[in-house]
Protein 1
Amino acid sequence: MTSQNGSETRVKVENLQKLYPISRGVFRAPTDFVHAVDGVNFEIKAGQSLGLVGESGCGKTTTGRMLVKLDEASDGTILIRDSATDEMIDVTEINSKTEQKEFRRNVQMIFQDPYESMNPRRTIFDIVAEPLTVQNLGTTEEREERVVDLLRLVGLTPPEPFLFRYPHELSGGQRQRVAIARALVMEPTFVVADEPTSMLDVSIRISIMRLMLELAEELGVTYLYITHDLAVARYMCDKIAVMYLGKIVEMGPTEDLLTRPMHPYTRALLSAVPVPDPSYKRPEVEIEGGVARAINPEPECRFIQRCPFAQDVCRESPHPDLSERGNDHLVACHLVDPQGNWMGAERAVLDLRS
Amino acid sequence: MTDTRMDTAEGRLGDSNSHAEAPILEVNNLVMNYELKGGGMVSAVEGVNFNLPRGSSMGLVGESGCGKTSIALTLIQLAAGNARVLDGEVLLDGIDLLKLDEEEMRQRRWTDVSMVFQGAMNSWNPVYTVGEQIRETMDIHWDPKPTAAEARAKTEELFNLVGINPEMIDRYPHEFSGGMKQRAVIAMALACDPKLIIADEPTTALDVIVQEQILEELKKIQHELGMSIIYISHDIAVIAEITDLIGVMYAGKLVEQGPTAEVFKRPRHPYTWLILSSTPSITGDRRQLAPLKGEPPNLLDPPPGCRFHPRCPYATEKCMQEEPPLAEVEPGHSIACWHPESVPVTLAGSTE
């Protein structure tokens, strides 16, 4: 199933946008919109994984949901390679039931909460086999065989005793394994994983992370990995994209982004991550306050209210383009020169808290 | 299980004979079970001992169900109705909180010990201003009641301390952001000058930048007011950042405790070592993280001997039969393990 050509593009997102209208009453057309996702562009190569990182409300989950067609895009294109025909299919153009069915063979999602993403009245067999039932694939025996294989693959061994249990009989880690088995039963080539380990305890988290990495290698699955945790993204992703208020503000190969962050927001995010080492001296967090919602945002840089470095150019120009500063490392900031050097103030001495 | 409740005073932290340095909190051999409807007891807290020196902070860390929150709720007598304290004492400044009746305990909450819970920011009443709600706490617990001016002055002082603009006193909760609401909860916890604050996952629901800011405020409060604080968290990285002492819990028992810096530098219990080995970090070499096999035990029927033995790579015959006591491996640093020398000096997992 995997492409031999490692640089083949599996997913390409162009100018993706999602606007949520704010209702002002039944008889009035909405005039205000939350720009949840606003002009997002990225590309994921086959077998690679891209981490989408940001604080709550930055649009990372909305982006993921549009990619699997759980939410409709307001604008833009989402091209995902169809494994059967090897053609790039525009997800936003998929309308008919048959096209959708076809699409879901190829693309799946793993959700954050393994307690809420499963029907409590169905057995593990029903849950994992559901995509096969919907797609009308195989006989009951064949389905059972497939489910047993998958449960074994995700480490629920021996698989047979799990088949006719219910979700409440399983621990959180076991349920997340079931969720992964369900996502993989159709042999998708692309999986959107939305914080798949954030509800799990540390000791279980690592085994799920390792499982997902092993499956990526064995089955050639491409991931969009959504997380708020940069430390987790470091282990799961080849590339990381940092989102802020609906925009990607920085994107690059994982280690390069972590060791050479350029955008002030990425720098703040990195300096705030707790580090399991009491002797670690953290750089000072330079920004204050929480994320706002982007309601009818001004054209200027989205980060301007919280940016301690903002200069006239930031206020007078539109939101900067995401452009490359060497080594496949892209950043959207007026204060970073084309070589990736910081041109702003050394360190902002600012206390925005009032 | 009674044979396991041994007192291991030599293994505890912050022991001192001089009265001047008497710890603010002493927990001695605390045993708490949850009684289930159909009979059966969940062994939630089993023979826990620790001391908290005055003005210091201690982190209790462990996975869900390890008993860390049960300890906190037992300390303030707010555990669920089916909780049974079977043994032990909790001395706050020399007074055993477990011996107090409900009314006496009620008077000591907020004034002697106050709590900041996870998601407490969602417990503000939407129809009163935040200032009014803090004032209410003061009215009930201050003796004599504060005048309006006193209450306002105190609230302003607290808002400044936790980093909220004092003008926000007359605002309603919906006008606060999530982080601000949690800061206001911390202000309220300080409203009656408690001797001890218990903070149970105080930043877990918050975004990382807001979390960092609130942890900074809490550190400041500890140092400026000489406050004693117990932090409870599943996140060992958060505990690393803010505490002087750490207690690692597994399946209802303290398995390792000591100065935070020491424990992180050289974890001695296999569980602590494995947890640290499997914690992703943005710093240092990108190691292959070592997985911890299996899942925590069912506390309705905990495993005999050391409760960690079914998952422990170093378990021997003895571990399956006998409960290891908490014993010092170096001054102030103790573990409950029969094989204290088994854990390697470096973390598990190879450097890539």
Protein 2
Amino acid sequence: MELARRFFLQQVARVTAGAALVPLSTVANAGINDQPPRRGGDPKKRYAMLIDLRRCIGCQACTVSCHIENQAPLGKFRTIVSQYEVESLESGNAVQFMLPRLCNHCDNPPCVPVCPVQATYQQEDGIVLVDSDRCVGCAYCVQACPYDARFINDRTQTADKCTFCAHRLEAGLLPACVESCVGGARIIGDLNDPGSQISKMVEEYRGELMVLQPEKNTVPHVFYLGMDERFIDRPSAAPELWEIRDGEGQELGYEYAEH
Amino acid sequence: MTAKGRNWGTNMQSIELVAPRYGIAWYPWAVQYFFLIGLSYASLWLVIPGAILGREKWKPAARLALLGAVSTAIVAPVSLLADLHQPLRFWHFYAYPTPSSWMSLGSIFLPLYVGAVIFLAWLIWRDPLKARAGAGGLQGLIARGIPLGQWKTPRWLVVVVGVVAVVLSFSVMVYTGAEVAILKARPLWHTEYLPAIFLLTGVIGAAGLAVVINRFSGMRHPLAGDQMLTIILVATVLAGLVAAGWLAQGLAINDGSVAAALESVRDNAGWRRAAYWGVAAGILLFLGAGLMEVMGSLRGTRWILGLLALAVAWMFRWTVLMDVQTIAKHTAGFNDYTLSLGSQGLLGIVGTFGLWLAVVVVVNLFVPWRAAYGGRDGADTLSATKGEPSYG
């Protein structure tokens, strides 16, 4: 009896595994908001980034090099360093806090299941990508990302985001932001390789690493070292940058607005 | 400095120096879609008692509501398509069905729903169309061709198609609400109360639309007007209760959407205005409908209340879909949004309403919709509007 049951279960497992190759079966298996199956990429790897904020000076070299490498439209950014001035309650001094931001390549990315055509997908190596030939530009993923990591590219009229420079990783190069970082604050690597620098640092600083908005259960894979936990959620800061307005109370446009 | 990070104490005094400006990703087209589709499914529900259950007293209201349901169902998908940045790729929805996405499910529900509503209207309108077969010109041509034969529409077929359409309308109601409410990234959307208010403001708007059509089509059926008035009153009370429940539960368990709303109202003058406006409009709607229920002499101005009901349904969607997008997600403050004049702004809004008006005018011209289920075709007998003086 027990044997028969085991045999039956084996068969079911086999049938189910085989059925996974048939696209229609995914329709029956996947529930609403479940992650669709990952596709492409190296299944042995899990790319992640560690940002050592102790080394970040807010020079925006990453922002600029990403812009040059990935040709994002002006005013839209795949990565940027948010900068804050915080009054220290201990010393009373104003101190600066830098927060480099990019796609978190989450393990439970909220942008992926919402995509109505699976143009946004996650590779086996954890990198979240957009197939711009398939994307319909509905911007549902832009709404679903809690980190503002996505935008609609005005030129392609499709969703755009950080790819961890997957095209450079494939060629054995580092992402543009990592390569240009003057302080060496950004470390990218394979978490599945225990010998990689990122694996070693994750091991060394296990109790100190933080991710952004962990309560959303997105399981981000960009880890911050030296992070102030008051910045892991939307900061309660005054947006001084936007206080300068024209005579009619409208925001002044970017200086390149006419370009 | 330690690896554990800086420690500045508990009260943050902080200024954001550098952050990008994040624009909105869904345009007013989305508001138009949610408005029109909400009117459509709720209008269809107002058709049920008269057309599907066959209640004599509700037949005039069903005539009005059917016109509302069909016209909005035709225009709504157009504005939805326009909100795509790549509208010509809409076929990708069907080439790559994605069961994990509410939007993908919606792409299946929506055309089925629109098809069912049009089919239902055809079944109901073909009998009065046949009666007009003798008319000359294009009207006669359409009256002879569209009914596809002289057979009488069987009652059972209307009931079956009606029930199918109503079931599909529920799928549209559920998907439009869930699509927005599942998004954790925007705390103000991420509440199960949101679909409920979408539904109730949809009913308020649909009843308002029926009142407005009642007035401006010259049908001026007093009973239908009264019934719609009662529906506006009941739906307004229910919407108020749901909103109160949302607030009370949110304050009790510190729900994210309520916290985000209170924060926005506290920090932003525009949000304070929106909150005052919403409460004022709700109270005005309640008092107006209530007063008209009590004082019969006021009922000639029902259409003003109808317009207010439509405004409430539209403004709610504008606040939810547009204003919420201006709340920064992971940066400080609020993003500026100014309505552009082009097709992604004002022109899109005016254009959608213009298209809706065109659909109503065309239907009104060629379909004797007032004569459905044994009604009198007011368009053919001018005396229908002579009974009451016109107040414009």
